[in-house]
Every structure is written in C-alpha cells, then in structure tokens.
Amino acid sequence: MTLRLRQLRTADAGFEADFQRLLHWSAETDAAIEDRVAQIIADVRERGDAAVLELTARFDGLQAASMAALEIGPDELRGALGRITPAQRAALEQAAARVRSYHERQREACCQSWSYRDADGTLLGQKVTPLDRVGIYVPGGKAAYPSSLIMNAVPAHVAGVTEIIMVVPTPVRGSVATGGSGGAIAAVGERNDLVLAAAAVAGVSRAFTIGGAQAVAALAYGTQSVPRVDKITGPGNAYVASAKKHVFGQVGIDMIAGPSEILVLADGSAPPDWVAMDLFSQAEHDELAQSILLCPDANYIAAVREAIERLLPAMPRREVIRASLEGRGALIQTRSMEEACEISNRIAPEHLEISSREPHRWEPLLRHAGAIFLGAFTSESLGDYCAGPNHVLPTSGTARFSSPLGVYDFVKRSSLIEVSERGAQVLGPIAAELAYGEGLQAHARAAEMRLHEGRTKESR
Q1: Which of 350, 353, 380, 448 is catalytic?
Q2: Which of 157, 351, 380, 391 is catalytic?
Q3: Cα Rg of the chain (Å, integer)
Q4: Are residues 298 and 244 in the same domain?
Q5: DSSP, residue by residue, 32-76
Q6: Looking at CB atoms within 10 Å, which of 26, 130, 176, 387 has the fewest?
C-alpha cells in the first residue's frame, strides 16, 4: 500500500495554508475526560485509600484488599536487578550514570546559592533548596518506560530531593481502561522487572502500582498510604494530563506534554535510510506523533521517501508509523538551509536533528527547540536513552517559552536580604517615597522608623 505522506514546497503559493494545517493540534482535553477526572480527583481527596483501591480495581482490573498489596517494597526493587539480564542491567546503570553526570554539571551551572554585599554592607542573594518530596508518574499501559523513570528520578536525586515516590500502573489484560492508566495492555497485571530495576538504580524511595487520574490525585493530596508530594513529573495519557492540570497549584507539575515530535533539517549528506529511520523513531510512539523533514534538495527528499516506503513494511509498529506519517508527517522542500532554520523556529519542535556536514554552521540560527541533535551520527534515540541530557522535553511549540526537565525543576529559590544599618539609611527614603505614592503609609513608616532621623523623632 502506497504511503500517503504529504510533500510540500515553500515556493508553492499554497504553502502557508498547508503548513498551518500540518501544525494544527489541539491540546484541549475532551470535556467528558475533564468531567470524569474531576470526579476521580474529588473522590480520592475525600476517601483516600478506599477510593484508590476501588478505582484501581475498576480501571486496571487489580483487586487488592489494601494499599499494602499495591506497594512495591525496596526488596522487590532490588530483586528486579537480579532478574533482568546482565546486558539490561549494564545498560540501565550506564544510562543512569550518564544522565547523573550531565545533571550534576547542570546543578553546578544553574542551581547554586549565591550572595554578595554591596557598598553599604547590605547582603543580597539567593538561597536554592531542593523540594522535600516528588512524585514520578511512569506510564504502564502501551509499553514499559524505564528510561522515563531514569530521566525523572535522577535529576531529582541530583537536586537533593529527599523522597521520590513512583506510581506505575500494572493493568490486567482485558481490564476496562477508560479513566484509568489507559491504552492497550502490554503486561498481564505483572510488575515489569526492567521498570523496577530502573527504580532501584535511580533511587526511588517508595513505589505503588497505581495509575491514571487516581494516582495523580493520591500524590497531590495524599492518602492514608500514599504520601503527599510537592511536585508531580512524568508523562501519561489524556486522563493523566488532565489530572495534572486539575491539581496544579496544589502541587507543582513539570508540563502538559502533547504527542512526540521530531524535525530533521537535512542538507542531503547523510544516508537517506538514517533519516527515514529517525522519522520512524518518533512516529512509532503514537498515531498523533509528528515527523517532519526540511531539506532544500528535491532529489534527497525523493531518496528519503523511497527509503521510507522500503523500510516501513519490516517495522513491527508499522501501522502506528503509517498512521502517524499520513496524519501529521511531511517532507518539505525549502529554498535553502537558512529558510529551513526559519521554519524550524516557527515549529519549535521537541526533537530537532541537524543532519548536516556542518551542524555548527546552522545551530546558531536555531532559537526554539526542546533538544538539538548535532550531526548525522547523533540520532534522537541516543538522547532518549543514554546521551545524558533529559528526554522530557516541551512539545507542541512550547519550546518557544519552556525548557527540558532538569535539576532546576526540583529546586526552589528564596531571596536573601540582610540590610545593614547604613544600608537602611540609603534604602529607607526610597522605599518610603514609593510607599507614600502607593498610599501604603504603614510600609512607609516601617522604613522611616529605621532612619537615624526617624528614630530621633520617635524618641522626642
């Protein structure tokens, strides 16, 4: 069957309209999902463990007499390390070490306390402290995601978070998924050893086999068994995303993620098969994922298309890839690489590959992207698993104003102010003048009382 993959040319008169249709994706959640999620959150907030047990039985098919049966103990996490293959254990440990090393450097660069004293002796600064407790949602419906666990837990540890609570759904095959963890079931209600081993490697404190909106609510408000956290991170389906929006403000959240995206800027120098497979790497995630190629070389675009048609039949997830490419994918011929960079900035993609002989020539022109992969040997999949930077990235154009998950998401900043007696004489009149202008006399008088002149007046 011929792949119905759209091809566009920036030189065509109708390009702009076609381009806007290509990018259109609504982040609005279905009203029915919003209503159901609100009910689930209210139920968990009111009844705690009892609601979580009932909802887990209804949505995931897991019958448990108590929350203790849904908690994964530390011995089971450590035991999973012995049950996975030596190659899997080595891969987990090496990936975690690289992610840890990267985020330790990030902490040094952006997340340190600092202070200084100005000329009058006043101390000003910033105190950076870690969050006490965070919750990590690990998807467990369509597949197991140990890499997601590492990317969320390791930077939290590096930041100094004391306690990391993991929730991961383990739905029973054939259970009703609507409102729960969602998706086709990959495991028969079993705890995935690779995920549990990753939790051990990444230093998870406690883990529960619960998912969906009920897990988010349990983390946000706490139950008799699930500790209340300060922030919730990690991806999930529409119910999880909606629940995170509902509880934001009660707790912090990382982001509301949309479908995965890859944009490849190609100058025609890399093997077409490499680019085709990189486009597949995101398309296989989800039918709504987006894979786009920007290239000024028409012959190269034709070669990539031929590679796509040739390689697709052998892919195990070919039907998902096909649906994704036909629904939201595109091969776009640009007038130049400079124009390709301009269009990339408009898209602000989650993953941006510069498949070029001179990636550093084009990188300075690129302002908006979740992660930038430089050169033909830098496949996006390496970033997903083990390069070191975080794979939790902004989607749906939000890279225009937001950043990858990092150590800075697990710390908070407090301002430090210590005004000296001499400094109070300098700052007091300024503050008083502005306070009187705003009609806030108590503010003004509080500053004036600390002035030498003010104290003299008060003593008379």
Answers
A1: 350
A2: 351
A3: 26
A4: no
A5: HHHHHHHHHHHHHHHHTHHHHHHHHHHHH----SSGGGGEEPHHH
A6: 26
Query: Do residues 93 and 14 share a domain?
Result: no
Residue 27's pLDDT band (boundaries 50, 70, 90)?
low
Mean pLDDT across the stretch 379-388?
96
pLDDT tens digits, 228-246: 999 999 998 889 999 999 9
Q: Any idea what the CATH number is for the domain that residue 194 is in?
A: 3.40.50.1980
Is 54 among the residues known to form the active site?
no
- Cα–Cα distance for residue pair 282/277, rounded to 1 Å: 9
275 and 369 assigned to the same domain: yes
According to the model, what pLDDT value does residue 182 have?
A: 42
Percent of the chain with pLDDT over 70: 93
Q: What is the DSSP letter of 251?
A: B
Token digits for 347?
């898209």
Same domain (yes/no): 309, 441: no
Q: Among 244, 246, 239, 264, which residue's Cα sits nearest to residue 329?
A: 264
Q: Which domain holds residue 427?
A: 419-459
Q: What is the DSSP string of 378-396?
A: --HHHHHHTSSS------T
Average pLDDT rounded to a whole number, residues 274-299: 96
Which one, of 84, 65, 95, 74, lies nearest residue 387 by Cα? Answer: 95
Q: Is the pLDDT of residue 132 over 90?
A: yes
Last residue of a domain, one of 343, 365, 387: 387
Place of tokens 């908006």: 368
292: three-class secondary structure by DSSP: strand
Give pLDDT tens digits for 401-417. Answer: 999 999 999 999 999 99
pLDDT in tens, 319-363: 999 999 999 999 999 999 999 999 999 999 999 999 999 999 999
Q: What's the whole-model pTM score? A: 0.90
Label residue 171 exposed, middle or buried (CB < 10 Å: 0-12, 13-18, 19+): buried
